[in-house]
């Protein structure tokens, strides 16, 4: 290949690269769940806008979220001694697609700060804790995210257990209520964009210049 063809080839290659560049569009969603008692499951259905395939080819779906949990528990001390205890919470927070695929799955495992309970007294311990900066990415099985409508999800929160540590005679826990909220949740679609009409025009011009240059050099 002659060196005089290189400028035209370089320009054409650059146009092809720019035409296939990746772009992103971000969709935002926010979810909340109702208050729950121990062992109660609360499914909630929601919707997020699907990726429009006319924009290009979807290559990745990224979901980021912060989870805030508030738990209120009544601690009773029927003994003759003061006690210092902590509450251990266990459960889960899930978001599933209709197919059953889990989009999010967070274990709600947390131990509260120490709580002092006087002899023959009771009180409500309320604690708030967060799981920040969680992230899930998907690069396969993306068909459920693509379309002209919404993809639905089912959100489940289960507070499966509460217990005290250390286990203390006469000290018990009751009336456990936990609320979990999904905050700052975003869905980001990463895709290879379809070239715009102006890009196709430039590609055509570049190809035409290359053809004319070759014909002229053959003449």
Describe this structure in words.
The protein has 219 residues and is of the alpha+beta class. It contains 2 helices and 10 strands; from the N terminus they run αββββββββββα. Strand 4 (83-96) and strand 5 (102-107) form a beta hairpin.
Helical segment tally? 2
The residue fraction in helices comes out at: 10-25%
Sheet of most strands: 6 strands, antiparallel
What's the helix-strand series? HEEEEEEEEEEH
Query: Poorly predicted ranges (pLDDT <50, ≥5 residues)?
Result: none
Distance, first to last CA: 17 Å
Task: Give the percentage of residues in beta strands.
Answer: over 45%
Overall pLDDT level:
75
What is the radius of gyration computed over CA atoms, rounded to a whole number of angstroms?
29 Å
